[in-house]
Amino acid sequence: MASGVGVNDECVSKFGDLKLKHTLRYLTFKLNDALTEIVVCDEAAQDANYDQFLATLPANDCRYAVFDLEYDSEDGGKRNKIVFYVWAPDTAKIKSKMLYASSKDAFRKKLVGISTEIQATDASEVDYNEVLEKVKSH
Q1: Alpha-carbon distance values, 121 to 86, 92, 100 (Å)
Q2: Nearest C-alpha neighbor of 135 from the set 92, 75, 72, 54
Q3: Average pLDDT, the chain
Q4: Is the pLDDT score of 1 beyond 80?
Q5: Burial classification of residue 88, based on how many CB atoms lie within 10 Å of its CB (0-12 exposed, 13-18 middle, 19 or more buried)
Q6: Positions of E strands within the chain
Q7: Rounded distance, CA 122 to CA 119, Å?
Q8: Least crowded by CB within 10 Å, which of 4, 16, 27, 43?
Q9: pLDDT in tens, 32-69
Q10: Paired residues of 66 in beta bridges
Q11: How does strand 78-87 pair with strand 63-72?
Q12: Can you give the pTM of this predicted structure?
């Protein structure tokens, strides 16, 4: 990784559970306390909702996240898209924002199958309807 931050193997295996087994609705990831590795922070079963996911995003720190977004398509069918989030609120520390930004590309490459990426600094950018519009446009 450009930042020297590694990725814990559990991140990739849990992502596989979300993507292939459909046993999880979302995952959040954070840097460990030593700032040397990305680790799983939160996970939720398939019955979790978007508001529960939003509640896991801290007001003053960064996170990565993936969400298995299910929605109705225009033809009436159900669709699922995996959305990758980079949560970096304006109130987060500069060092944290820089580490998350410089580690993002290498981390995302390990999570094969992502449909859409959302980079957000406040709640309006992760609003369900905003995200849904972006997902449908891809």
Answers
A1: 9, 9, 13
A2: 72
A3: 95
A4: no
A5: buried
A6: 6-7, 24-31, 37-45, 63-72, 78-87, 116-120
A7: 10
A8: 4
A9: 999 999 999 999 999 999 999 999 999 999 999 999 99
A10: 27, 84
A11: antiparallel
A12: 0.94
